[in-house]
Amino acid sequence: MSQPAQAFNLSLVHLKRLSRVPDGERPPLLFLLHGVGSNEQDLFALAPQFDPRFVVLSVRAPLVWGPDSFAWFTVRFQDDQPFINAQELDASRTRLTNFIGEAILAYNAHPARCYLFGFSQGAILGLTLALSVPRLLAGVVACSGRIPPEVLPWSSPPTEIRGLPVLLQHGREDKKLPIDWAHRARSTLDELGVVLTYREYEVGHTLTSEMLADSNAWLASRLDEPAWYRH
Fold first, then answer.
1. Which residues are CB-contacts of 166 (< 8 A; sequence separation ≥ 6)?
2. What is the CA radius of gyration of the chain?
3. What are the angstrom distances between the C-alpha of 224 and each of 53, 65, 217, 220, 221?
C-alpha cells in the first residue's frame, strides 16, 4: 500500500483511503467533492468501492453552514432558477486547485492522474475546474450538476480543454436541478471538444448504485488508458 512521501499540512480538511499500487509506483488521485450542506464523511462512505489503485481523498468544502454542514458556494433560488455567489465559487475553485497540487506532493501521486468525482454542488465545482484548469485533471465525473453561466468567462482556450475525459450523469426526475441543466452542460462540453460520456437515469437528485457502478467502470477504464495530456 502506497504511503505519503512525507508529512504535510494540507490546506483543506479531508479523509483519505490509501492506494494499493506497488511500492515505488506513483498512484492516481481521486478527489470526492460533496454537495451543499454535507461534509467529507458523506462520499467517503463510497471510498471502498473505488478502484484500489486510487488514493481517494474526500474533501470538505470551506464554507461553514452549520454543525457538520459545509458548502463550496452560496446558492439561492428565484422563480425555480438557481443563482450562485460567483465570488465564493471562484474562491473554492482556487482553493481546490491549490489543494490538488498539495496532494500530489503529499501522497507522491502521479501528476497526470488526478480525477474529480463530484455530486451536485461538488459536480458544479468539478465542471468548473474542467473548464478553467483542464490540464491539471485526468478526468471528471459530474453527478447531478450543471455549468453555471458565471463560470464561462474563467474557461481556458478550447485547445487546452479538447480531449479531457468527462462523465456526465443526471436523473431525469431531478427536481432540484432539472435535466435541462444536464442538456445545456452536454452542449457546452461538446462544443469544447471534451471526450464526453453522457448518461441519464430514471431517478431524482441523488446518487444511485447504478450511477456509482457506471462511474467506477468509467474511472477504471481511464486508468487503463494513456493519460489524455502528458505533463
1. 127, 130, 139, 140, 141, 142, 189, 194, 195, 196, 197
2. 16
3. 11, 39, 11, 7, 5
Q: Can you read off the three cell numbers belonging to residue 11?
A: 490546506
Alpha helix ranges (H) inside the chain: 40-44, 86-106, 121-132, 158-161, 179-192, 209-223
Are 186 and 168 spatial neighbours (Cβ–Cβ below 8 Å)?
A: yes
> What domains sit in the chain, N to C, each tagged with a CATH number?
14-223 (3.40.50.1820)
Contacts of 149 (CB under 8 A, 6+ apart): none
Tens of pLDDT, residues 67-123:
999 999 998 877 777 889 999 999 999 999 999 999 999 999 999 999 999 999 999
Could you read off the pLDDT of 122-142 as tens digits, one per residue?
999 999 999 999 999 999 999
Q: Are 172 and 144 in contact (CB under 8 A)?
A: no
Exposure string for 115-154, b = 16+ CB within 10 A, e = fewer: bbbbbbbbbbbbbbbbbbbbebbbbbbbbbbbbbebbeee
Count the Cβ atoms, other than its own, within 10 Å of residue 41: 12
